Predict the 3D structure of the following.
Amino acid sequence: MKKKNKNFIYKKIIKDLNENKYKKIITRFAPEPNGYLHIGHAKSIYLNFQIAKDFNGICNLRFDDTNPNTIKKIYVNKIKKDILWLGYKWNSKTKYASNYFNKCYKYAIELIKKKLAYVEELSPKKIKKYKGGLFKKGINSPYRNRTINENIYYFNKMKNGEYKEKEACLRAKINMSSKNIILRDPILYRIKYKKHFRTKNKWCIYPTYDFSHCICDSIEKITHSLCTLEFQNNKFLYNWILNNINIKYKSSQYEFSRLNISNNITSKRKIFFLIKNKIIKKWDDPRLMTLSGMKNKGYTSKSILNFCKNLGVSKQESIIDIKFLENFLRKDLSKICPRIMGIINPLKIILTNIKKKYIIKMPNHPKNKNMGTRKNFLCKEIYVDKKDFQIKKYKKFNKLYLNNIIKLRYSGMIIIKKIIKDKKLNIKYIKCKYLKNKKKNNKIKIIHWISKIDLFKIKYKFFNNLFKKYNIKKNKNIKKYINNKSIIEKYGYIDKNIFLIKKKFFQLEREGYFIIKKNKLQKIISLKNY
Ligand code: ATP
Ligand code: MG
């Protein structure tokens, strides 16, 4: 195992193994199938699956399907696909919390029989009120002292559908004045009549996440149950349940900080809000940090894993700059992308002294000869980018301007002779002279270009950050910070050779990395970190 991986969780596992606490390390990734996975989940996937790999253990995939109102089978399938795309395989069959509903029920009865659970009939509003707050003790419910038989009777009624939703629930009997509010008689079971996609109509009572999670973990003999920091206080409940039911193996929970990315959201709830409000259409929108959105934008799974590997695991909440993530993408793409020339803002150039066409061989990758070469032409009419042109000389930028010399990449040098404008004084084209025997010096700028013979008209699509604000983690009104210019489309030119080099990803020289999508070129990322 690499030294780099020695975060506090790795250290704990190594200690546990040295003390012979476990024979085999078993982790699990336990998503709720109520949306697509995002980059935050990738951190958790990497952590759980990589631990299993590094310690010769196993990692289960278990869907937390305890809330029939929010879960959907399509999300199950999508989540599985995304994990496989990242390159991980889970241990044996896919697991579900619903596999263990019978067992959870049995443990609920056990708690009732031990006088550690009771059927509550206060309204949700009253339950909340009785709970108190940080500086206010809770009040015992009038239903708290029901006898075992009463509780068995009412719990049975709950199970048989004799209550409406929210009319009753099962609560643990712990301590209504506990400093940890989670321990103020937490709800273990609630009534829901929505049909479950696996158990259909078998149940109308469902265990809560808190009640089911520790039981599922322990049944599967998970050695290290990893979750995010917001569950830190729930750990006491996790252990309370396991200590009060008759279960041989007791799992342990460890918390690490959530991943937040600048100018983005990593919360299914917030993404759902954007979809519901029609701000974005789908979960796989390339502007989202969902794994399928990122894949659509052109992210490689390798770059995401490398990012996760370098993130570090701690208990410190922070925001990771999107640029940090993008660096890993750039590194990966630089290796695998053939180079090509594309003009995003075309400007016509007439090379007055060129009469015929010349063949020019260009390498597809400056460092990798195996990627081969492509055949291009130089002729009288070529196109460069408007960005490389300016009418007057400006000190800092060595652009095209009258009488200045510039070099065409993989070809010769040109000098600007005349600017031709239309009636509205817009530049129509530029007349230049091709300098055949001129030697290049370091001061001469090299620009990209395409000849008329090689060009193909193409639509360019650019994505910008979905949010204008760097940190929107804590903002409630996320709508306010939406970047209205998050998608820009433009028509430009591309070297036709792009269709001969049968690849998906390209680096457009001096522009950045692009992915080809149905004859459209979509920008993945810039060349440099600006
Ligand atoms: P969300 O807030 O986006 O709905 P969640 O925690 O409710 O996320 P789950 O499907 O329950 O989503 O999460 C599965 C696992 O992924 C959990 O262990 C959770 O802690 C972890 N996870 C979710 N979001 C992040 C994140 N931003 N960073 C790290 N881990 C995360
Ligand atoms: Mg959730």
In short: The mean pLDDT is 94. The pocket of adenosine-5'-triphosphate (ligand 1) is lined by residues 30-32, 40-41, 43-44, 64, 227-228, 258-259, 266-269 (CB under 6 Å). The longest helix spans residues 39-54.
